[in-house]
Specification:
Elements: H1 3-28, E1 31-46, E2 51-59, E3 63-66, H2 77-83, E4 89-95, E5 106-113
Parallel strand pairs: 3-5
Antiparallel strand pairs: 1-2, 1-4, 2-3, 4-5
Length: 115
């Protein structure tokens, strides 16, 4: 196989991998969940050069992350975090998996207050 053919195959593999893991992962793991917020927080991590922060939403059963998501067109994490009040119940759309030993949380991409 010539060099162009190898590059073409590599490009196809990268595009498929991006679709499966970059966009497919969020779309195939999404779920609507009813939660009652117990606490909200902002976690700041620094390695000396770079500072990274993320919002965390605590409930009685699980903790969730609230970060922007390209796959869902969500770019208002700060606004959503300000709307989540302790003691209130919401229906939230989430995606991902909770993996405690990796400090990985399901991400909230949409909230709706439960009346």
């Amino acid at each position: 196989m010539n060099k162009k053919g190898q590059v073409g195959i590599l490009v196809v593999i990268l595009v498929v991998a991006f679709c499966i893991f970059g966009l497919g992962f969020p779309l195939f793991t999404q779920k609507d969940v009813q939660i009652t917020v117990t606490k909200t927080d902002r976690i700041v991590e620094s390695n000396g050069e770079n500072v990274h922060s993320k919002y965390i939403v605590y409930t009685e059963t699980e903790s969730f992350e609230n970060t922007d998501s390209l796959a869902f067109g969500k770019f208002n994490s700060s606004d959503l975090q300000g709307q989540l009040l302790p003691g209130k119940t919401y229906v939230v759309k989430v995606y991902g998996w909770r993996i405690p030993f990796l400090s990985q949380y399901r991400n909230i991409v949409k909230i709706e207050e439960k009346l």
